[in-house]
Specification:
Shape: elongated
Strand content: 25-35%
Helix content: 25-40%
Radius of gyration: 16 Å
Structural class: alpha+beta
Largest sheet: 3 strands, antiparallel
Number of helices: 2
Order of helices and strands: EHEHE
Distance between the termini: 15 Å
Length: 87
C-alpha cells in the first residue's frame, strides 16, 4: 500500500566549483556581522516533493531517477542528495 513521503532534494555545486552566492553571504553578511569564526559558506538549492510510494527507499529512488532523467541538476558541476521522510 502506498504512503505519502516528503522527499527533499538538495542540489549544490561540487567542492571544486566556485560558489559566488556562498562567498558573498560569507564576506558581506557573516564576516561583516562579526562572525569571524565562520570559515566559509556554501549555498544550495532545496526542492521538496510529496511522493506516493511503498517505502522511503522507493520514494528516494523515484525522485533520484526523476532528477537524473529530467536533468533537474547538472551532474558535471553539481551534486544531488535525496532524502525521504514520512509526510
Amino acid at each position: 500500500m502506498a504512503q505519502k513521503f516528503l522527499v527533499q532534494v538538495i542540489i549544490e555545486n561540487k567542492p571544486y566549483i566556485n560558489d559566488p552566492e556562498g562567498e558573498t553571504i560569507h564576506r558581506d553578511l557573516v564576516l561583516k556581522g562579526g562572525y569571524s569564526q565562520v570559515q566559509s559558506v556554501r549555498s544550495a538549492k532545496m526542492l521538496k516533493m510529496a511522493v506516493s510510494a511503498r517505502s522511503e527507499k522507493d520514494a528516494e529512488k523515484t525522485v533520484q531517477k526523476l532528477c537524473e532523467e529530467l536533468r533537474i541538476f547538472n551532474p558535471v558541476v553539481s551534486t544531488c542528495m535525496v532524502k525521504a521522510s514520512k509526510a
